[in-house]
UniProtKB/TrEMBL annotation:
GO terms for molecular function: homoserine O-acetyltransferase activity; hydrolase activity. Keywords: Acyltransferase, Amino-acid biosynthesis, Hydrolase, Methionine biosynthesis, Transferase. The active site is at 144 (nucleophile), 268, 301. SUPFAM superfamilies: alpha/beta-Hydrolases. Residues 40-303 form the AB hydrolase-1 domain. This is Alpha/beta fold hydrolase. Transmembrane segments: none annotated. It holds the Pfam family Abhydrolase_1. GO terms for biological process: homoserine metabolic process; methionine biosynthetic process.
Length: 326
């Protein structure tokens, strides 16, 4: 079931790569209640090809549903926390993106959508928080591209986030992500037709789910991929790939004052557990404190959601800033 969405609307927003959005809508879902002090907000950030429905049990999120982590009595306890889950700019789930109408032409933007950076979405999220009266987040957390956003929050808005949780992600774009320059020629070669690209989108999703570690028969994987391909816009795949193409905040991590929980999956090939050893010297030098959790899962890149029970206790303890039970 789709999450009910609200909208935060801005006008004439300047973007990191030089473009502008005449209207900038950030769609978002919420769970729980913001307390009187407005200090119990947890920002949950989704991955590349999903949206706020990552919080739904029946989510088709490639990174796995987080319904086992976020909810009443769970690691991110919505009886105590106010959960805010915004859709990325450029995505297909309510925020301004390639499906939106370009006011200059009266037609959908398609692949001509203004170039984005990850920071554009993060800064829009910060303005959304201000709009809601949230001056400092209890935590910013997410998987995959959501982890990249969480790192970006830590370095761009250090005074506004108390904890950062980066799961199955890293502070830079991994080599395994398809380069945007491999996608762009296909879109530039012909007039944009979203429906004509549905079969291609379906095949991309099937390959992604298999690469991420999804088990199941070919028919089961194709059925899940088909649900997503009916909803997602092919141009959004391009726009978001370009947004993350040069993402790298390693040199800025010294700005981050929040403690970090860094979570990787034993079987993930996109963000392999070897990243722990690669990044440990940097984290030790740049960060005030950090913890590492390896999810002992066969679910690959899906592990943070699919095997939520294997790290939920560590997440809950970190959210409360205490040592997990042995």
């Amino acid at each position: 079931m789709a999450m009910p969405l609200e909208q935060f609307v801005e006008h004439d927003v300047a973007l990191q790569r030089g473009g502008r959005l005449a209207e900038c809508v950030t769609a978002y879902a919420t769970l729980g209640r913001l307390n009187a002090a407005r200090d119990n907000a947890v920002l949950v950030l989704h991955g590349y090809t999903t949206g706020p429905d990552m919080l739904s049990p029946d989510s088709t999120a490639a990174e796995g549903s987080w319904a086992g982590l976020v909810g009443p009595g769970l690691a991110v306890d919505t009886d105590r926390c106010f959960v805010l889950c915004p859709n990325l700019l450029g995505s297909s789930y309510g925020s301004t993106g390639p499906r939106s109408i370009d006011p200059a032409t009266g037609r959908v933007y398609g692949p001509d959508f203004p170039a984005l950076a990850v920071a554009d979405s993060v800064d829009a999220q910060a303005r959304l928080c201000s709009h809601l009266g949230i001056e400092k987040l209890h935590a910013a957390i997410g998987p995959s591209l959501g982890a990249m956003q969480a790192f970006s929050w830590g370095v761009r808005h250090p005074a506004r986030v108390a904890r950062v949780v980066a799961a199955v992600g890293s502070p830079y774009r991994p080599a395994g992500v398809v380069p945007a320059d491999k996608l762009r020629p296909m879109f530039d070669a012909r007039p944009y037709d979203a429906e004509a690209l549905r079969p291609w989108l379906l095949q991309q999703r099937i390959q992604t789910l298999r690469a991420y570690g999804m088990a199941g028969t070919d028919g089961e994987v194709e059925a899940r991929a088909a649900l997503w391909a009916r909803e997602f816009d092919a141009a959004a795949l391009l726009v978001l790939a370009e947004a993350v193409s040069d993402f790298d905040v390693r040199a800025e991590l010294h700005r981050m004052t929040a403690p970090l929980l860094f979570v990787l999956s034993r079987s993930d090939t996109l963000f392999p557990p070897s990243l722990r050893h690669e990044l440990a010297p940097l984290f030790n030098a740049a960060l005030q404190s950090w913890r590492f959790v390896e999810i002992d899962s066969d679910q690959g890149h899906l592990a943070s959601g699919a095997d939520a029970a294997l790290w939920a206790a560590e997440l809950a303890a970190f959210i409360e800033m205490k040592e997990p039970a042995p």
